[in-house]
């Protein structure tokens, strides 16, 4: 919990391993609680009242321990969900950024592909400043798309 609150992601398998250990521990403690509770409730000739009370105290303590284990299992499940949610949010942010970058450069990629077909009659192909003007237009197009995205508050 502390690592998650400090914005540090715990190792992926760490929570799963902890949850598995808590479940195994619960599997061993539950029958012990039942045995001690049964010993405390039955009247056995070799056990007096103080020993029965002691058995009941042990059963109660084991019951509280089992409640703590159940709470720990539930907490690890919640933490695993929080980690998965944080990882999904991080992935969504990265995907969003990459989509915006593609949106900025996609028109420029189309135009460079269109003008790179090696056919005659391309506008500005024979002009000495044609390539420079074309590059400036591509930069202006990218800046224009970025400005549009910023105006729409997507960037």
From TrEMBL:
Gene Ontology terms for molecular function: cobalt ion binding; cobalt ion transmembrane transporter activity; magnesium ion binding; magnesium ion transmembrane transporter activity
* TM helices/strands, residue ranges: 96-117, 129-149
Q: Where in the cell is it found?
A: Cell membrane
The species is Enterobacter agglomerans
Protein's recorded name: Zinc transporter ZntB
Principal place of residence: membrane
The entry sums up its family as follows:
Belongs to the CorA metal ion transporter (MIT) (TC 1.A.35) family.
Q: Matching InterPro entries, A to Z? A: CorA_cytoplasmic_dom, CorA_TM1_TM2, MgTranspt_CorA/ZnTranspt_ZntB
Record flagged with keyword tRNA-binding? no
Looking up Pfam families in the UniProt record yields: CorA
What Gene Ontology terms describe where this protein resides (cellular component)?
Answer: plasma membrane
**PANTHER family reported for this sequence:** CORA FAMILY METAL ION TRANSPORTER (EUROFUNG), ZINC TRANSPORT PROTEIN ZNTB
| Presence of the UniProt keyword DNA damage in the record | no
Gene behind this protein: zntB
Q: Name the SUPFAM superfamilies on file.
A: CorA soluble domain-like, Magnesium transport protein CorA, transmembrane region
- Look up the domain of life of the source: Bacteria
UniProt membrane topology term:
Multi-pass membrane protein
NCBIfam families given in the database record: PRK09546.1
Keyword annotations for this protein, in alphabetical order, are: Cell inner membrane, Cell membrane, Ion transport, Membrane, Transmembrane, Transmembrane helix, Transport, Zinc
